[in-house]
Amino acid sequence: MKKVLSALTITALMASPVFADAQHKHGDDKTGSMSGMMHHEKMTSMNEHMQEMREAMEKIKSESDPKKRKKLMEEHMKSMQKGMQMMNHGMDKGMNKGEHKKGDKAEQMGEENMMNKMKMMEHRMDMMQMMMEQMMEHQSEEKKKM
């Protein structure tokens, strides 16, 4: 019981900055809009790729011909590898960009930049979880012999 309570407390503490972001805004959302658009494009691309992998897994599950199933499994593996490359080479590029200026505007930019980094990390973790789910399903289907 103590372990469960501790785990819930830690989870709540870690999630609170994410929920605080919705209520705590500085300035307008136009600062950094170009990097935000690039991030949005990458996320959209990755989400589309994840949907394609889910559809491929559904085809694998419904295929009864062993040769076609094997081909679908190979395509799904390549798709997972491409997804990992997209995550490794595309999504983390913006996380190292910092704003280094003086004054109140710099402080505001620093806080916005930190919130953007937190959002990017959250999205990246979500994508990693989805990739793990795909890998687990792939392994499960791989073990099934037709």
Number of helices: 4
Helix content range: over 70%
Radius of gyration, in angstroms, nearest whole number: 20 Å
Q: What is the overall shape?
A: elongated
Low-confidence residue ranges: 18-32, 94-101
Strand content: under 5%
Beta strands, count: 0
Q: How would you classify the helix and strand content by structural class?
A: mainly alpha
Mean model confidence by pLDDT: 74
Can you tell me about this structure?
The chain has a domain at 103-146. It has 4 helices and no strands. It starts with a helix and ends with a helix. With 146 residues, it is mainly α. Helix 2 packs antiparallel against helix 3.
Summarize the entry for a quick read.
The chain has 146 residues and is mainly alpha-helical. The protein has a domain at 103-146.
What is the fold's blueprint, element by element?
Elements: H1 2-23, H2 33-62, H3 66-91, H4 104-143
Helix pairs in contact: 2-3, 2-4, 3-4
List keywords for this structure.
mainly alpha, 146 residues, single chain
